[in-house]
């Protein structure tokens, strides 16, 4: 495993999750904004995993760390609202906006949660976990027998320091992954790996390129345009689809 050491304390991590503030050499606001371009990217990934989506009809789905709800929106659109979808999000601003958009989003303690789900998704959550094997081992208890897990994170731990995406956004980006690390953790936790899907960190759509170009012109914004042009962002956005044995 590749992880940050020493770790920020628990209070710092919890505050960063709730407020979207990362304190280090500078204060970085990461609450961000609703990104409609993610909906089309997520829909594309769902199509690759589930075809026409008919297998999802009537299934219960929990999206952990759902943010503004872009994935939930894509899921509802892809399944024609056939999925019973729910999200959990610690960032108060993101959760409030998701609810305003009509999504079933709240924040609750997963360790005490007793409902079971057919599917759980964790998109851009792995890097926030102080102990991924232990936490995934706990969260798998929320799955029905044979339930599925969709885990998305960066396939970056084997990159050189020059190529690794920065900043690290301490104090809550703590763990970094590769395909080997994630699949080993999931297999040891009792999952079969059904598929691994990789994409560019910024998918090369006209809208995505325009957005990164616009960021490059705005003081204080962090743009990935140059990395996109150089080709440094290829195949590092990784989705692992796994089934609980």
Q: Please tell me the overall pLDDT.
A: 81
As residue ranges, the low-confidence spans are: 18-28
Number of domains: 1
Main sheet: strand order: 6-5-4-7-8-11-10
- Give me the secondary-structure category: alpha/beta
SS elements, strand count: 11
Gap between N and C termini = 24 Å
The profile of the biggest β sheet is: 7 strands, mixed
In one word, what is the shape? Answer: globular
Q: What's the CATH H-level homologous superfamily?
A: Vaccinia Virus protein VP39
According to CATH, what is the topology?
Answer: Rossmann fold
Q: Which CATH architecture is right?
A: 3-Layer(aba) Sandwich
Q: Determine the fraction of residues in helical runs and give it as a percent range.
A: 25-40%
CATH level 1 name: Alpha Beta
Tell me what portion of residues adopts beta-strand conformation.
15-25%
Radius of gyration: 17 Å
Order of helices and strands: EHEEHEHEHEEHEEHEHHE
Please count the helical segments: 8
Mind explaining what this structure looks like?
The chain is of the alpha/beta class. It has a single domain, classed as 3-Layer(aba) Sandwich (Rossmann fold). Helix content is 32%, strand content 24%. It has eight helices and eleven strands. The strands form three sheets. A seven-stranded mixed β-sheet has the order 6-5-4-7-8-11-10, with helices on both faces. Strands 1-9 form a two-stranded antiparallel ribbon. Strand 5, helix 4 and strand 6 form a beta-alpha-beta unit. Helix 2 crosses helix 3. It is globular and about 50 Å long. The two termini are 24 Å apart. About 4% of the residues have low confidence.
């Amino acid at each position: 495993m590749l992880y940050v050491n020493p770790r920020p304390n628990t209070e710092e991590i919890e505050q960063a999750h709730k407020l979207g503030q990362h304190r280090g050499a500078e204060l970085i606001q990461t609450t961000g904004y609703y990104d409609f371009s993610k909906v089309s990217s997520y829909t594309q990934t769902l199509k690759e995993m589930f075809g026409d989506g008919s297998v999802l009809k009537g299934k219960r789905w929990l999206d952990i760390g759902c943010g503004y709800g872009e994935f939930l929106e894509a899921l509802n659109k892809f399944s024609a609202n056939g999925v019973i979808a729910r999200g959990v999000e610690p960032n108060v601003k993101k959760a409030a906006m998701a609810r305003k958009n009509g999504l079933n989003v709240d924040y609750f303690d997963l360790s005490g949660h007793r409902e079971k789900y057919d599917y759980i998704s964790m998109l851009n959550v792995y890097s926030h976990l102080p102990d991924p094997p232990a936490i995934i081992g706990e969260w798998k208890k929320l799955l029905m027998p044979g339930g599925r897990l969709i885990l998305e994170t960066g396939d970056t731990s084997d990159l050189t320091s020059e190529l690794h995406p920065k900043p690290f956004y301490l104090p809550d980006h703590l763990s970094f992954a590769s395909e080997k690390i994630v699949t080993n953790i999931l297999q040891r936790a009792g999952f079969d790996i059904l598929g691994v899907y990789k994409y560019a960190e910024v998918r090369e759509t006209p809208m995505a390129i325009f957005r990164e170009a616009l960021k490059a012109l705005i003081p204080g914004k962090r743009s990935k345009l140059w990395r996109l042009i150089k080709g440094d962002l290829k195949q590092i956005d990784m989705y692992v689809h796994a089934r609980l044995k």
